[in-house]
Amino acid sequence: MSPLRQYTLLSALTVLLGASIVIALSSGSVSVPVSSIWQQLLNPVPGIEQQILWELRLPRAMAAFVTGGLLALSGVIMQVLLRNPLADPYILGISGGAAVGALSVILLGVASIWITQAAFAGALLSVFVVFGLAGRQQWSATRLLLTGVVVSAGWGAIINVMLTTSNGNNVQSMLFWLMGDLSQSRTGSWHFALLLTGLLLILSQARALNALARGELMAAALGVNVSRLKLLLYFTASILTATAVTVAGSVGFVGLVIPHMLRLLGARDHRWLVPCSVVLGGSFLLLADSLARTLVAPQQLPVGVLTAMIGVPAFLFILHQGARSR
Description:
- The protein is built from 14 helices and no strands.
- By secondary structure, the protein is mainly α.
């Protein structure tokens, strides 16, 4: 793919991101005109529209963009690290560990205070458990993948026990968190700083990622320190995924579908695939959350339901197109 087409693709995705933000801010059970959005953002006027934009929709849109960007970036990393097209940010059990931590504080009745910290702690615990078990003897993508799948199954069993032994008041909160929900999500400046840091860090390793995607022997022959690169990729993807899960719960298909969609469009060079994934991932989750707020308004659906409804046919289409191209 020529540099001009790469620039064109990134520019088009940037325009899509801007349109997605406008849609997210204007849509909902109460529609807000686009002209009012610009007025309220540039010169806020006290009233119902200011409250809707600044207290509800803008924080939620920021959370959707950060979560989508983190998951898409982590998906790119995982697919290169494991050299598996079905790899996604949750394949190594990170979401399961985070879910156990979050559901534990919901059961204890202190979710409003500790749910973010508990989810992040559970995710980090899963990261170190998988790494300790997979890397004790020999570091390999296959060993890491198998260990992650087994640990994820273990977390799933614990989650099922929690759900079956909980009372009805807690079960709905647990299910919404497990399906991915942005209704209570909030982000701080450090979330954006982490996303930018991860983006720049992975971009600095883009050439090495291109080599690793062709195999470890090829990467080593080209002078890449494969062991150090794999450690960097594993812990970077883990931190990004853990942060995304603490913001919105387990939102599926973003990290799986977005990288494949961009490769189908021709962005195979990681110098372009990485930034395009962040932009498209954020746009995708913004649009999915807008649909989640409007399809059955005034009720709201968990955003994870919409990403699955969109992601499943999208992934099947990508598989079909890939088979045709081969």
